[in-house]
Every structure is written in structure tokens, then in C-alpha cells.
Amino acid sequence: DGEVHINELKNGNSEMFWNPTSEVRRQRLKRHIVLFEEQTDFESERLWQHVTSAINKGDQHKATQEKFVLEEEQRNAARERRENGTEWKPLLFRHDATTNEWHYKYEDLRPWDPLNDIAQFEKNGILQTMERHLSTGMSNHKTTCINNQITRHKRSAKDCRRRKTSDQPSNHSQNTESSCSTPESVQELSDDDGKYLGFESLCAQCGKEMNHLKEIHSAVLSLQRAQQDIHR
Fold first, then answer.
1. Are 180 and 157 in contact (CB under 8 A)?
2. What digits encode the pLDDT tens for the residues 210-223?
3. 49/46 Cα distance (integer angstroms)
4. Which end of the chain is more exposed for a tag (fewer CB within 10 A), N or C?
5. How would you classify the pairing of strands 93-96 and 101-104?
6. What is the pLDDT of residue 87?
7. d(C-alpha 20, C-alpha 22), whole Å
8. CA 68 to CA 75: how far, in whole Å?
């Protein structure tokens, strides 16, 4: 996102090749990194910090020296492991002895499924895919939760009617007031209906999963906006 110039060595002329506008700078993708103090010793930004610093200062000689020191330390560490018979066990990669290649342990080579896959993210070095069936499971749990509460509500209504029938005399008027009042039908129940029946909050698990899905939805919208910006 900075200026780029073309310098003609023969005649010394300089020409502007790229000068990003403020609008271009605003649309750049945000860089998300782990805080430096939270990185382990072998993460690239921490491991190569002195080389990077020298490059940023334009000191090529210092950068070469720091690179040599770093690589020599790695060679010495590998030599010590061989002498001690210590096996190196990578955290995120495995070695294929047949092809003599290293492969990411958690690689997912299946095609992207736009009907089921929502987003892919990285956590602790492990790539994971958020899938729609999570929301389906939440919906099933929510339905079960509602059905259980409807059953309890029906049972309470029957007990109430039974008490009303046993308490009133046989020749009592049909218009006698009762302390119990139940809806005519609870066969079909929407989310809003649940509020009227007195169980606005289904359960703690439903609430947590609803909040989790809202966060996922917000993240997906953010990704979609970023993709639209890239296409523009």
C-alpha cells in the first residue's frame, strides 16, 4: 500500500508506477496475527525478528548475519538431537517416508460444500470448518426442549381441570369462575407463542448455541463483505 517507482538506470529518470489512493488503503484486508508476547519461540515472527528488523532498516549485511546465526543454531540443535537419539516430533506436520515429504496433519482435501460449509478458520494452528449441521442440531435440541415444556404444560392443565371438576358441586353453573385458565390448543407452538405460555428462555444450552450462531452469522457477513470488496 505504498508508492512504487521505476528507476531507469541508463538515464537516471524515475517514473511513478503505483500510487495507491486513500480509498485503496481503506479497502485493504486486515492482518490478523497472534500477539508477539503470546507467540512461542518457534513461530516465524518471533524466530525471524532480528532478520526482519535488519531488512526493514535496509541493512542487508546485518540481515545476512542474523540469518546465518539463526540457521547455525538450528543445525546445532539438529546435531545434538542426533547425538542424543532424540526424535523430533513436529506439532502440526507428519513425515511421509514413502515420498520423503512433509504433510500438514489436519489437511482437509474434500471439496468445499457451499450447501453445508459456512466458514473455515484456524485455531491453535489447526484448520477447522464450520458446518451448517451445527445449526440443525441446535434446532433439534430446541424442538425437544419445547416439546418437553408443552408436555409439562398439558399435564399441569389436566391437573387444573381435574381439581376444578372435583371442587365444584354437580348442579353448579357452567359459568363458574376458576383459578385455572388454559389455552384451547398447544399443538403448534412458535417462538413467540412460547413467550405467552411463560417459557421465554428455553434452556441455558439453547441460549448459548443461539449466541454462538449469531457470532458465526456476523463473521460470515464480514467475510462476504470482504469478498465483495476483493471482487470490486
1. yes
2. 777 888 888 888 88
3. 5
4. C
5. antiparallel
6. 87
7. 7
8. 10
Instruction: Tell me the torsion sign for CA atoms 143, 149, 155, 157.
Output: negative
Residue type, 35: L
CB atoms within 10 A of CB 202: 19
* Element holding 180 (H helix, E strand): none
- Structural element, H or E, at residue 20: none
Look up residue 18 and give its three cell numbers.
503505483
User: Which is higher by pLDDT, 83 or 230?
Assistant: 83
Q: Please check whether residue 103 lies inside any domain of the structure.
A: yes
- For the chain, the domain total comes to 1
Q: In terms of pTM, does the model score above 0.70?
A: no
Tell me the residue length of the chain.
232
Q: Is residue 127 part of a domain?
A: yes
Structural domain span for residue 117: 91-131
Distance CA 160, CA 131 (A): 45
Q: Where are the alpha helices (DSSP H) in the chain?
A: 22-26, 44-47, 49-56, 60-84, 133-167, 191-196, 204-231
Sign of CA dihedral 212, 213, 214, 216: positive
Q: Domain for residue 23, yes or no?
A: no
Asked whether residue 70 carries a pLDDT value surpassing 90, the answer given is yes
Return d(Cα 169, Cα 166) in angstroms, integer.
8
The cell numbers describing 151, all together, are 408436555
DSSP labels for 153-166?
Answer: HHHHHHHHHHHHHH
pLDDT in tens, 42-57: 888 999 999 999 999 9
In a domain, 99, yes or no: yes
